[in-house]
Structure of Tyrosine--tRNA ligase:
Amino acid sequence: MPDLDIAAHARALAPANDPSFENVWDELLWRGLVHVSTNQEELRELLGGDPITMYCGFDPTAPSLHLGNLVQLLLLRRLQLAGHRPLGLVGGSTGLIGDPRPTAERTLNTKETVAAWVAQLQAQVERFLDMGGPSAARLVNNLDWTAPLSAIDFLRDIGKHYRVGTMLKKDAVSARLNSEAGISYTEFSYQILQGLDFLELYRQYDCRLQTGGSDQWGNLTSGVDLIHYVEHTSVHAIGTPLITNSDGTKFGKSEGNAIWLDAEMCSPYRMYQFWLNTDDADVIERLKIFTFLTREEIEELEGFVETEPFRRAAQKRLALEVTTTVHGPEATAAVIAASEALFGKGDLQTLDATVLRTALEELPNAEITSQTTVLDALVQTGLVASLSEGRRAMSQGGVSLDGVKVTDETVLVSGALPGGVSVLRRGKKTLAGLFVTS
């Protein structure tokens, strides 16, 4: 297993803001983390002054957070490192409803499912924030203050401050009103519930700032406006940009599958490869948003992208840093070892069996018996289209099994690697995984 970069290891355990910025607000702007906000001059003064309390909400609409949520978690961590106190809100009540999607009504999950997901998301949030010290983070659940609230009290004390005309103008609501699906009263009311969250956190913890994605701006300002009406004071909101790839495709999606933060739903190997495959046009922006590398370090990597793009130094650093932050240095070292060994730069026999299997699951693969020939396996995995093409590839010396060249078409697959698997290779870079049964 290769030695993990010592700096990445230390950063994962004790991340730090860039000391070249006088105010954390200036660093947020440089990293491109502010797409929309309330008054910027007031925010800069607020974040550069005495510690404040801020929050971000995460709804349990799935059993894991994903890369979009990671943007918010790292933003909270950056603000915490500047001395401010984060609240991680996991929405036990708003998760029962779900914020309006642009196209269709959400399927409502059971209360038992949502409660289980709340616990899972809280455990994930804790991994990214410091839960001790003078700026200790705190986990909160909005079910605590919405469950005791009667419908009459909700309408009298909160609903009366909202104007339907204003609510209809919110982007998510207007999009749904103009769609065939329309919008239910349940989802229409979501913005009021999120506004109530900010009000409660202001009252309980003097919370002065909420962060979220810019697509949530209507919900963010719902709380800002409510506090202004009820408490006659100003609070703030920051909307981070929605991250898309340079070609306009949605970031964090691979054939419809989100990149989850739970290792069971998205293996560390898959996450590492996701970042490693970042386009040159996107990698510097990703380094700014998803890592704690300094401006000087990122500018150096930007130079490599321009002068030596074939080395993919920026992508390798991005994959190293983010996978270490999400899954830890040991898991990252294991997936780097697997990645290098699969492409001929390490010993396949020394790899962890679980990591190797998850790596092979990301490749073309097939489940075969120990009586399968290498030639048949080439066809079953799709590395060749026919037996005749497979024979030709073998005769030309372009086929190997577990790193050993195979020219005899009668050779059987061994499954000799850890976990009873084998790696089939055609040419230098075309690989497939073989899961061998008896």
